# Entry
Amino acid sequence: MTPQPNPQAGAAVKAADRAHVFHSWSAQELIDPLAVAGAEGSYFWDYDGKRYLDFTSGLVFTNIGYQHPKVVAAIQEQAATLSTFAPAFAVEARSEAARLIAERTPGDLDKIFFTNGGAEAVENATRMARLHTGRPKVLSAYRSYHGATSTAINLTGDPRRWPNDSGAAGVVRFWAPFLYRSPFHSDSERQECDRALQHLEDTIAFEGPGTIAALILETIPGTAGIMTPPAGYLAGVREICDRYGIVFVLDEVMAGFGRTGRWFAAEHFDVTPDLMTFAKGVNSGYVPLGGVAISGEIAETFARRPYPGGLTYSGHPLACAAAVATINVMEEEGIVGQAASIGETVIGPGLRELAERHPSVGEVRGTGVFWALELVKDRETREPLVPYNAAGEANAPMAAFGAAAKARGLWPFVNMNRTHVVPPCNITEAEAKEGLAALDEALSAADEHTVR
# Structure
């Protein structure tokens, strides 16, 4: 699709937004939202006709890109057939979506509880774990994000939690492994794994194993930095949870549905949790949908005991029809394999080449279409390019990088001192190389703030 400039329409959209829309995570008078006129595939464009290659996949959810015709058609067909229905009934789109998801989840995660998004999935997974065990506490990691609803934000380990933290949510935090910025002073992945597992054991011992209902981890943390856990870590966590009767929850809201080159990131580690949360890529974000995949043991807890939770739009037919179409498209077009291949042959090697040329790149990490560049002032000391949770002038180096990328037609995912490379799973080789070239130029703006 060729963008057609219409600045007058764009000005009207922008004026209405500024007059009436209250944006999330923002000081309302300090933001300047781009007015978007349209999107297709890996691109979107504004009302001036400027096109951007989207290296963010929206908020890491358009796993099959924008406006895939088969998914759009499925939503239209469902709207014409049965646009909505209450969650207590058996509806074809809902049943089929649950079946297709259960076929792809690991182990016996065969029951699907539908929500409207990832945060609600985390809320309900936590509730299920507490009811199943009769215990109050939940363990979660620093450097994590689990959503913005009440329990989910308290489980989150980044600064967005701070203004929302109740201090009484029964959450206990621990350090997960991250060798580049190791809290354990490790000098190898093996040592980092062993020390992180020992730290977790110690935390459980001092909190009291019999008080802990669940432990939640992002299989590969997303917004917090895309830190792939070392070999053996998740298996070690699984063993610890089994030993103490703790429900193991994996949050796959961002990493799931092809983003890491597998249907779910847990497949990379041969680990099956007791509960798995999902959202985003399940239907490429076309209609809000999330859910919890539930093990047989936990499902049995509620076989004759009502589960005290529900949502008006749980398993909404339009959202489920979009999920059915998305999963089928991913199968038909080999999109999961494509994500693995493009990451291994184009994005990974390309990012590592950029790291060799740019002193601002401290580390490259990722898999599939799920990558992060850690930007630093000094490679030797690993001092971040901007301080933790920087804002205003303190964040100027990252702001300059982001502006440089946008000027070159690349929309970047920027968080703290990192840029994440998270395009659609079906991005083409040519598109990926286009993005890498723009990133190469934009990183020069970050290089200006390094110690040389």
The chain has a mean pLDDT of 97. The first helix runs from residue 7 to 20.
